[in-house]
Amino acid sequence: MLTSDWVPMPNRFLYLVVLQEAQPPRFVLHTTEFGLWMKTTSMGYLLAPSNNLIYAVTNGVVFHLLASLALMSHLRTMLTDPGSVPLGNPPGSDTVSYCFICRSAIPERAYHCIVCGRCIRKSDHHCPWVNNCVGEDNQKYFLLFTLYIGLISTHILLLLGIPILLSHARGEWNASSTVSPSGPILFLFLVALMGFLFALVMLCSQMCAIYRDKTITEMLYQNKRSQGRRSLWANMKAICGSRVSLAWLSPFHTPECHKSREHHDPA
Ligand SMILES: [Zn+2]
Ligand SMILES: [Zn+2]
Q: Which regions span the lipid bilayer (predicted)?
């Protein structure tokens, strides 16, 4: 998982070992807190009171499956080297420029991140939610993270909305009804809606960047070095793996191109 002399920030491990408020992983901790709260509330208020065991078990399994995939995607985005250029990297055949901040010869489409203090290959952006840059080698996991957060949020919105629509269809809810949702249910709805919108925006911006073969960094700085050299399909294969398979949807699977870079990069 690790390449060159890149090591995860100490705070990334701190997050795993001691769940305390440290400055950089604040967003990471809030993501975890929201996830745990959503799980407890969804199970306690939406599924546990159900009289239908099959409904409760099926939705419980779906929720936990999506939550596990989202958590794994989150961890891999956070702990995978995004494609850092080794500090003091000597000029090579792929060198196109020199970074005076980290004193490294850098290849095409590598940009310096002031948070990581390193140049990152095909740097997209530095994401506070994963406390890491999103770059060439962890973009797949970030895509999956936004995808599974979007699916979990959609699942919760459906669990909230379908019973309401059904009871409305049965005539149990009308203009004179005085029943109102409880505080936790209302807050769960707002959090799920926020998660859905966040995932939608991030997923759309990522797909737009992949379609144009330009990272968000390149779009922001109007960089003309990359001008959509490949098709969307070729770009997806470069990120997720050369063979289209279910492995594209798995955060446990490392694309072959990333494995070969790990193998060839000096330790
Ligand atoms: Zn640099
Ligand atoms: Zn960074």
A: 53-72, 141-165, 185-211
pLDDT tens, 98-143? 899 988 899 888 889 988 888 999 888 998 888 899 999 999 999 9
pLDDT digits (tens, 9 = 90+) for 8-65: 665 555 444 444 334 456 666 667 767 777 777 777 777 777 777 888 888 888 988 9
Beta bridge partners, 107, equal 95
Mark whether 127 is an active-site residue: yes
Q: How many residues make up the chain in this entry?
A: 267
102 in Cβ contact with 158 (< 8 Å): no
Distance 55 CA to ligand 2 centre (A): 43
In the set 113, 116, 119, 127, the catalytic residue is 127
Tell me if the pTM is above 0.85.
no
The tokens describing 153, both together, are 């949020």
Q: Which ligand does the CA of 83 lie closest to? A: 2
Query: Cα of 114 to ligand 2 centre, how many Å?
Result: 7
